[in-house]
Amino acid sequence: xxxxxxxxxxxxxxxxxxxxxxxxxxxxxxxxxxxxxxxxxxxxxxxxxxxxxxxxxxxxxxxxxxxxxxxxxxxxxxxxxxxxxxxxxxxxxxxxxxxxxxxxxxxxxxxxxxxxxxxxxxxxxxxxxxxxxxxxxxx
Length: 139
What we know:
Layout lengths: L6 E11 L5 E6 L6 E2 L1 E4 L6 H8 L5 E13 L2 E11 L13 E5 L13 H10 L5 E4 L3
Parallel strand pairs: 1-6, 5-8
Antiparallel strand pairs: 1-2, 1-4, 2-3, 2-7, 5-6
């Protein structure tokens, strides 16, 4: 029996939370109908932590909540890590991505976002009812 090898793709999703904790920065996904956090491919020779460290901007505060999830389509498994950074002051979206815009957290429940649980995650984080540490977003 010839089983195809599973390809693994690793992606870091960076959620930028506004200084006032009301909005997050999202960019259009590849299909242009979905919005997602800033997305960075993680090479196999690097850890998620190394990529976060290299990307991190001065004075951003990293949240104590992180999320992980995995999806599978055919022989491709995609692993995601979600990290949240709070900005110390107002910032223009173009500073991070020309395709991005700020969305109110209250809109995430009705907005087509990836991951689908992003609204739940951000509401829980801002309101303080998601505990510190890693959580899993897989259904």
